[in-house]
Amino acid sequence: MTDTQVEPPVPHRPHHYDDGTDLGSDPAASSPAPAAPKVQSPFSPNEEDLVAPLTVVLVRHGVTEMTTSRRMSGGGVPGPPLSAPGRVQAAKAADALYSMGRRTWLQLPHVTRVIASPIIRTQETAGSIGRRLGAHVETDDRLREVVFGEWEGLTVPEIVERDGDAIHAWRGAEIAAPGGEAIADVGTRTWGLVRELAATHAAECLAGRDVPRGLALVSHAVAIKSTVGMALGMDPARWGAIWPSPASQSILQVRARQDGSIAETHVLAVGIPVE
Q1: How far apart, in whole angstroms, are the C-alpha atoms of residue 68 and residue 84?
Q2: Range of the domain at 256
Q3: What's the pLDDT tens digit per position in 81-124?
Q4: Does the residue 8 lie in any domain?
């Protein structure tokens, strides 16, 4: 597990767009600014070994009819589409992502890459975000929701009637859902993607563009809480205490070493709701 600190955002320093343009200027009118000073963490064991920060914004999809009826909607099936309120939430999430580094979270880089779960509701949410950012939506299976197996489509009371306390044992990471996944397994696959993205970012930095970058991962409730839990080094039994609401954003700042490994991860925010 990485050495993780829950810290407020790094003190503001003049970051740059991914194309090298200073955040405080008009990118269409200004020439490329000098390289920004490297943003280092006071907690790193070897500051000189770190590349620029990678910001990962975890975005939950908007609501569906399954969300509002409180039925289990997992990653084992394509799933329902966004409802009308869910589409509104997706548009608001897109605006929130566009604002980062422009009107809000000015110390963070712009989000320029969007990766989504293959499930219908996340693809639709990511589509709204991609159109707003002008970014192509990539798909990664590791971002899909936990597979609920035989519990798919059921409410918690229905599961309790059928299997007793099994749902509570599942939530406490003691068992897998019947025919489905355990919560800890979800964290393993989502964190594998974060590690891969950190390694790619480090390689890009070493190739001559050592600048902060931002990307969005559009996913699901259990997948997001599992990713945050992994970032915090929490016991999987406690991940259920993390709750990202529909269309919310959770922000991680990943500090990678030059060799691509993760030195530390800062959790800047969890579950910022859309307004």
Answers
A1: 12
A2: 50-272
A3: 999 999 999 999 999 999 999 999 999 999 999 999 999 999 99
A4: no
Cα gap 164→175, rounded to integer Å: 13
Count the residues in the chain.
275
Phi, psi (deg, nearest 5) at residue 32: -55, 135
DSSP state, residue 52: S
Residue 235: C-alpha distances to residues 1, 205, 242 (Å): 11, 32, 12
> pLDDT tens digits for 43-59?
555 567 999 999 999 99
Residue 42 in any domain: the answer is: no
Q: Look at the block and give the residue holding tokens 């003691």.
A: 174
pLDDT computed for residue 98 by the predictor: 98
Assigned domain for 15 exists: no
250 in helix, strand or coil?
Answer: strand
Give the three-state DSSP class for 116. Answer: strand
The CATH number given to whatever domain includes residue 73 is 3.40.50.1240
Q: Is residue 160 part of a domain?
A: yes
d(CA 232, CA 9): 15
Indicate the number of domains in the chain: 1
At residue 275, the pLDDT reads 84
User: What is the predicted pLDDT for the residue at 46?
Assistant: 59
Q: DSSP for 145-198, please give it.
A: PPP-GGGTT--HHHHHHHHTTHHHHHHTTSSPPTTS--HHHHHHHHHHHHHHHH
Confirm if 264 and 142 have CB atoms less than 8 A apart: no
Per-residue buried b or exposed e for 86-107, using 16+ beta carbons within 10 Å of the residue's own CB: bbbbbbbbbebbbebbeeebeb
Quick check: 20 pLDDT over 70? no
**Is residue 193 predicted with pLDDT exceeding 90?**
yes
Whole-number Å distance between alpha carbons of 6 and 89:
28
Name residue, tokens 């000189």.
48
d(CA 34, CA 42): 24
Cβ–Cβ under 8 Å, residues 138 and 114: yes
